């Protein structure tokens, strides 16, 4: 984990081009590193940092990354609401927005209501899934969903962090794929999915 100015954390990235992006992100957005503790809790410093990131939607911070445009969706398997294994290939046929998040990541949780509203409103034009990266999986994600009162999103889980590893990014990260499973763009950080900026981005995959 890379701590910058005592404000937020960014994952360490080995690829030089990604390292440049990470430095840019470090000066731009508040993100969460991956979960470290075997007991399913974020590292202590991480938890303290994340706790201060719950902002109003007018203060969400994010970066749009188009450097992966055209890349195929990863093949890593994760689990659906029925606990059955699933891959992103299962969603081909219409545009797909994949949100990588975690219950302990404050920016992730803060944007979730706007993502849920997007999923409810655009169900016929696109699919929206939120895939939790919590190491304890359903044990912590299902209770969170029960309390959150979301209307459209379902509890997909990825306790092995296969999708996060493939994205090589920080949380939250949202990746938009076309109907053929090719990446269009990704948003790193929290965004208001009901706002004008998000609407313009989503129009690119229509």
Gist?
With 206 residues, the protein is of the alpha+beta class.
Describe this structure in words.
- This protein has a six-stranded mixed β-sheet with strand order 3-10-9-6-7-8. It has a two-stranded antiparallel ribbon with strand order 1-2. A two-stranded antiparallel ribbon has the order 4-5.
- Strand 1 (2-4) and strand 2 (8-10) form a beta hairpin.
- The chain has 206 residues and is α+β, with helices and mostly antiparallel strands.
- Residues 1-28 and 38-55 have low confidence and may be disordered.
- It contains six helices and ten strands; from the N terminus they run ββααββββαβαβαββα.
- The protein is globular, with a radius of gyration of 16 Å.
Query: Which regions are unreliable across 5 or more consecutive residues at pLDDT < 50?
Result: 1-28, 38-55
Average pLDDT, rounded to a whole number, is 80
Order of strands across the main sheet: 3-10-9-6-7-8
SSE-based structural type = alpha+beta
Report the radius of gyration as a whole number of Å.
16 Å
Helical content, roughly? Answer: 25-40%
Q: Note the quaternary state here.
A: single chain
The string of secondary-structure elements, in order, is EEHHEEEEHEHEHEEH
Number of strands: 10
Shape: globular
Measured distance between first and last alpha carbons: 37 Å
| Number of helical segments with 4 or more residues | 6
Characterize the largest beta sheet: strand count, sense, and whether it forms a barrel. 6 strands, mixed
Strand content: 15-25%
